Amino acid sequence: MAAHARGAAAYAAKAAGLAAPNEVTAMPNEVTAMPNEVTAMASEARWQRDHASPAVREVLLRLPCPTRPAGVLAALITDLHTQLAERR
User: Cβ–Cβ contacts within 10 Å for residue 2, how many?
Assistant: First the structure.
């Protein structure tokens, strides 16, 4: 249940990452892809955290700590929990 409660923010962050366009930077004699997925996910996760009401934050912090992350969604959920706990 705890993962489901935190999942909305994680899915929003993952969707932002998937929707982010990749930038391609031309370097002399090479072309390097610079994906924006990580930046977009972090930005959306930060927005979700910052716009959560105090009541929502308190409820999320009462839930059990997330288990060890295995995958992008689990890592986002764990980061959200950690960041909320640090802001107490």
Answer: 15
CB-based burial of residue 5 (10 Å sphere; 0-12 exposed, 13-18 middle, 19+ buried)? middle
Q: Are 52 and 8 in contact (CB under 8 A)?
A: no
Residue pair 37/1 in contact by the 8 Å Cβ criterion: no
**Segments making up each domain of the chain, as ranges:** 2-17+38-86
Q: Which residues contact 38 (CB under 8 A, 6 or more apart)?
A: 17
3-state secondary structure of 47: helix
- pLDDT tens profile 10-23: 999 988 888 887 65
* CB of 41 closer than 8 Å to CB of 47: no
Write out pLDDT tens, residues 26-50: 444 444 434 677 788 888 999 999 9
